[in-house]
Amino acid sequence: MDDTNTAGLARLSEAEREILTTYAARASWPAGFAIYQRGAAADGVFVVTRGRIVLRSRVRAGRSFVPWIATPGETFGSEGLSTNGKYTTDARADEESETMFLSGSRFRAFVREQPQHALILVNQLMAERSALLEKLRELTTLSVEQRLIATLLRMAENNTFTREDGRIVLCTTRYRLLCEVVGATRESVSLVLGRLSAEGLVERKGTNLIIAPPIELAERLDVGGIETEIPVTAFSETQAQAIQ
Questions:
Q1: Whole-prediction pTM
Q2: Domain limits at 97?
Q3: CA–CA separation, 41 vs 163, rounded Å?
C-alpha cells in the first residue's frame, strides 16, 4: 500500500523507503519497547516502516505529553542529525513495529551518493517540523475541544487506530494516549467527549468508544465547536472512569 501524502502530511512511500535499505539498518521492536530515552546521545534518524512509535515528554509524576506519533513513512529521532545531538523525548513502540535507522555517517553517504532521494527525505523532515510547529500553535490558541477534534482527525489518517469503516476505536490504552497527545487532563477530555456523545459523534460499545467518521468531525470543527452548551449526560464521569 502506498501511504504517501495521506490527508496533508507527506509520508515516504514504500519505493522511497526501499531505496534507503542499502544505507539503513532494519530493526523490529515489540510493543512497549523503549527505543531511547530523553537525554541520551543521538546519532542519525529513524524511519518507521510498520507500526507506530510514540514520542513522550514527561511533565511530572504521572503526567506526560506526546508531541508526535510516528507512523509508516514518517521519521523520528532526527535530533541525531545535529552536532552533538541528544534526544529530547522518550521513544517507545506503541505496538509491534519495524524501523530503519540511518546513522549520521550513513546519512551523509546517502546525501553524497543519492542526492535526489536524499532531498525527498529532507523534505519529509521539514514537513514533520512544520506539523510540530502547527501543533504548537494549536496548543496555545485552541480550546481543549478543538485540539481533541484536530487530534482525532490526525489519528483517523492512520489505519492502525481505525476499524474497516474508518471510525476510530478508543480502548483504554488509546484513550490515555489521546489525553497525552491533546495535552489535557482526563477530566477535561471526558467533558469534551460527553458533549460529542450528546451530539451523536461518540458512541460507547462496552469499554470502547467509537468515534464518528472523520468528515463529521471535520464539520464539527468547521462550525466552531467551541465550548457549546450541551448537557453532559450521554457520557458521564463514571463511564469515563470505565475506560481509564
A1: 0.82
A2: 14-139
A3: 38
